[in-house]
Specification:
Two copies of one chain form a homodimer. Chain A is mainly alpha-helical. Chain A contains nine helices and no strands. Chain A binds a DNA duplex through helix 3. Chains A, B: This is TetR/AcrR family transcriptional regulator.
Chain lengths: 198, 198
DNA sequence: GTCTATACTTGGATAGAC
DNA sequence: GTCTATCCAAGTATAGAC
């Protein structure tokens, strides 16, 4: 008979990652201390290190969850008409941008990933999966005559992601209205790949 | 009679910022220690703090220099035909992306700026100047019939910057060839604003 | 002006009682 | 499993000799 309740264990881990995510987004990874997290989560350091071996491990856990969410969306996009699928994936990628507090986290993960190989691998695999699926959808849309690609499907997919990055980059400007700009993003992408005006 | 030679003083400051910039790009701001900088620049900590009050001040100095370079380019762009001016500014913004080591520095400044008000002000002023000039050039190009803007000149200018951000975001992918992709960036922008294919 | 040595602070992680 | 107390390392910045 096990003494640990796996459900409770997972719930507590989740509580810690959720709390930490807010702090990382606000102050950045390096400037958020373990003490900060413990205080916010209302636990002791001893307890925190019972659940996670290091501070970095907490950070990684946050993005592992994110990868699983993504995979689900990609699967659903494959069921639509190709171009609609592309737009759906793009819309989904833009969702976090609409929540101000999440934006800081995205900037942080990019900055950290280039120096943390394990985190990098996680992020890269995730981006790769999105890019591959976008490339497939774009090629299909092209073959079906919905769009007319001026570059390879792969390059187009890369730039679709680049446009989303551009959206995130602009978020640091307090005057930038992300919600309104998502439609401009769609317009730019549509014109790029020769789709009908949306 | 002054005991300090202002030329030598400036040269030494420059030596420190150049050395530090390389380290910041490679390891990030927070993970680069003052000791690291001193070792690489071959000076002592005492000496370093004679030239800069804090570590952050070194970081800021790097980007102050950058702002001055930018202002010069913007002035020259105003002398060309409007659309050529736009393309020249964009090309200039892309130059740092071609140097791998500088890319890390760009990611770092974005991550840091949201938490350092003084640095933020520096970066924001710089971006604002670029955006204003781009908006003016785009509007003139539109009025001259070189392009046909589907959105306000200001929004278009913002997205021109967003595209450049997208380029930087893709740099973390080791397979991404920045040099080749600058032309794709120009294609996307051209189609967006209804310019002749370049 | 530049160095060496070091004071002072903070932070990540651990030990051991309960 | 959770806490308190604490260790040890690293980091910024300063003091004071030269």
């Amino acid at each position: 008979m096990r003494t640990v309740d796996p459900v409770k264990h997972a719930a507590k881990k989740r509580h810690i990652t959720d709390t930490a995510a807010g702090l990382f987004a606000e102050k950045g990874f390096d400037r958020t201390t373990v003490a900060d997290i413990c205080k916010a989560a209302d636990i002791s350091t001893g307890s925190l290190f019972h659940y996670f071996p290091t501070k970095r491990a907490i950070f990684r856990e946050i993005f592992e969850q994110d990868g699983k969410d993504n995979a689900e969306i990609l699967a659903r996009a494959g069921e639509l008409s190709p171009w609609d699928g592309v737009l759906m994936v793009i819309d989904h990628l833009c969702v976090p941008a609409l929540d101000r507090s999440v934006a800081g986290l995205v900037l942080e993960v990019v900055a950290q990933a280039s120096r943390d190989p394990e985190l990098w691998e996680l992020v890269a695999r995730n981006e790769q999966a999105v890019r591959d699926e976008l490339a497939v959808l774009l090629q299909r849309a092209h073959d079906a005559g919905q769009i007319k690609l001026p570059v390879s499907a792969r390059t187009a997919a890369t730039w679709a992601q680049g446009l989303v990055d551009g959206l995130y980059g602009r978020l640091v400007d307090p005057d930038f209205d992300a919600t309104a700009q998502v439609s401009t993003l769609r317009l730019i992408l549509s014109r790029f790949v020769g789709a009908q005006a949306p």
